[in-house]
Amino acid sequence: MSHKPKNIFVSGAVSPALIADSIQKHSTKTDIGGHSIFLGQVRADEKNGGMVQAIEYTAYEEMAVQKAFEIREEIFVKYQLTCLHIHHSLGEVKAGEVCLFVFTSSPHRKAAIDACAELVERIKNELPIWGREIISAEKYEWKENK
Questions:
Q1: Whole-model pTM?
Q2: Pick the CATH number of 9-41+61-128 from 3.90.1170.40, 3.30.420.40, 3.30.70.100, 3.40.50.360
Q3: Residue 64 in contact with residue 128, Cβ under 8 Å?
Q4: More confident residue, 137 or 49
């Protein structure tokens, strides 16, 4: 378990290299029996007569980092986890790119899967992060977390 809040934010999209590197780093941890990974991707939804081109994410960063830390600590108490990682985008993320990467590891798969699912829901519902859907240069609307 961590004892101080870690910055969860990355600038722009979560890169495939960051995801691959995170997975690779866990190959030396031989007490892990299962990982669960959630990748949130920006959809090109139809809105207001156009298609979503990107989402621009903003956050109350200090509060979001602190709240993510509190949630992380609660999840570690509730589930038998070895590792837990959260990476969320700030700034513009284009349709098709990854904006959220949640990675949980445990000696057994069920804890990793259940913890990952709960963590994603809590991030979406409890963190002060907002997404402005960019439809075109002139059109945008604020995204509702679902």
A1: 0.90
A2: 3.90.1170.40
A3: yes
A4: 49
